[in-house]
From TrEMBL:
Dimer of alpha and beta chains. A typical microtubule is a hollow water-filled tube with an outer diameter of 25 nm and an inner diameter of 15 nM. Alpha-beta heterodimers associate head-to-tail to form protofilaments running lengthwise along the microtubule wall with the beta-tubulin subunit facing the microtubule plus end conferring a structural polarity. Microtubules usually have 13 protofilaments but different protofilament numbers can be found in some organisms and specialized cells. GO terms for biological process: microtubule-based process. GO terms for molecular function: GTP binding; GTPase activity; structural constituent of cytoskeleton. Keywords: GTP-binding, Magnesium, Microtubule, Nucleotide-binding. It comes from the Eukaryota. This is Tubulin beta chain. Residues 1-129 form the Tubulin/FtsZ GTPase domain. Signal peptide: none annotated.
Length: 165
């Protein structure tokens, strides 16, 4: 990371911050992901940090340590992230079952919902407009107090992966 960092960031005209996507249930997303966020915060304290964090669910759990991983990771997100978009694993599965009528949702189906949500959240960064044109302005308009930066996100209409729009 240290050797590629100056080259990659040196070519950018405008650099607003970082976006990190990770799951808090597993060891890699919770431990390594929050370590990466902490290291980036140390290198670039003046840049915004936006995370899309998938929180585990007791109903849809693969390992017994998911609640511990998530609990230990939240403190790092409070300290080192500026904006956390919370994605609930259980809600993703419920949307697939109830709304999209999928009997056995795959990770691809869940990832499709997550990518559509991420696209909706970040469209103000990609397209011109009057409001929320960068990560800092988005934070100013959404965050009432610095430590209250966890947001439940959603979008409509819900469509499955294979359907035509």
């Amino acid at each position: 990371m240290h050797s590629a960092k100056p080259l990659a960031l040196g070519k950018m005209r405008i650099f607003g911050g970082f976006q990190v996507c990770h799951s808090l249930g597993g060891g890699t997303g919770s431990g390594m992901g929050t370590l990466l966020i902490s290291k980036i915060r140390g290198e670039y304290p003046d840049r915004m940090m936006l995370t899309f964090s998938v929180f585990p669910s007791p109903k849809v759990s693969e390992t017994v340590v998911e609640p511990y991983n998530a609990t230990l990771s939240v403190h790092q997100l409070v300290e080192n992230a500026d904006e956390c978009m919370v994605l609930d694993n259980e809600a993703l599965y419920d949307n697939c079952f109830r709304t999209l009528k999928l009997t056995t949702p795959s990770f691809g189906d869940l990832n499709h919902l997550i990518s559509a949500t991420m696209s909706g959240v970040t469209c103000c960064l990609r397209f011109p407009g009057q409001l929320n044109s960068d990560l800092r302005k988005l934070a100013v308009n959404l965050i009432p107090f610095p430590r209250l930066h966890f947001f439940m996100v959603g979008f409509a209409p819900l469509i499955s992966r294979g359907s035509q729009q």
